[in-house]
């Protein structure tokens, strides 16, 4: 892989990762409610899922999803249902002072719960498998060993994606003080909930192409 090819990959991933989607929305929402430090567990969940998606794509799951309408539909609707569920739950949640949430380190606000939420949101989009299956080969040299090239691309993606997630979480955390009123927090919950529901409904319209 040439330096020029790698820089093109960096540029592509930089703008793709920057695009607001369910992953970044979750990082920002958790940044608002829990602060950057605790949102690191959310980001760990998101990145763990993305790592599994990359491995699945390399192992051929992406190609299988691209050819099997039934399997793609099962994964797609399961992901859509989870996003809609998360959206409705967020919409209906009562506004709770940010300071209290940041101190609540148990139950549905504990580290494992935040990790699980991040993991499930990132895993909810079957097109991500196809995305990596289609993306990586475009930047690989077929005449050079594939393993090292995949490792470089995966590490580069991980670094850029995690930086954007932390940026969104930090942006949310900076907004927390201004948003820390019942009316504004209710608006945040409804905006985030509506966005997750919208993402879930959009997901049902995805095709394998």
Automatic annotation (TrEMBL):
<keyword id="KW-0812">Transmembrane</keyword>
<feature type="transmembrane region" description="Helical">
    <location>
        <begin position="40"/>
        <end position="64"/>
    </location>
</feature>
<keyword id="KW-1133">Transmembrane helix</keyword>
<feature type="transmembrane region" description="Helical">
    <location>
        <begin position="118"/>
        <end position="136"/>
    </location>
</feature>
<feature type="transmembrane region" description="Helical">
    <location>
        <begin position="148"/>
        <end position="166"/>
    </location>
</feature>
<dbReference type="InterPro" id="IPR001123">
    <property type="entry name" value="LeuE-type"/>
</dbReference>
<feature type="transmembrane region" description="Helical">
    <location>
        <begin position="70"/>
        <end position="88"/>
    </location>
</feature>
<protein>
    <submittedName>
        <fullName>Homoserine lactone transporter</fullName>
    </submittedName>
</protein>
<keyword id="KW-0472">Membrane</keyword>
<dbReference type="Pfam" id="PF01810">
    <property type="entry name" value="LysE"/>
</dbReference>
<feature type="transmembrane region" description="Helical">
    <location>
        <begin position="187"/>
        <end position="206"/>
    </location>
</feature>
<keyword id="KW-1003">Cell membrane</keyword>
<feature type="transmembrane region" description="Helical">
    <location>
        <begin position="6"/>
        <end position="28"/>
    </location>
</feature>
<comment type="similarity">
    <text>Belongs to the Rht family.</text>
</comment>
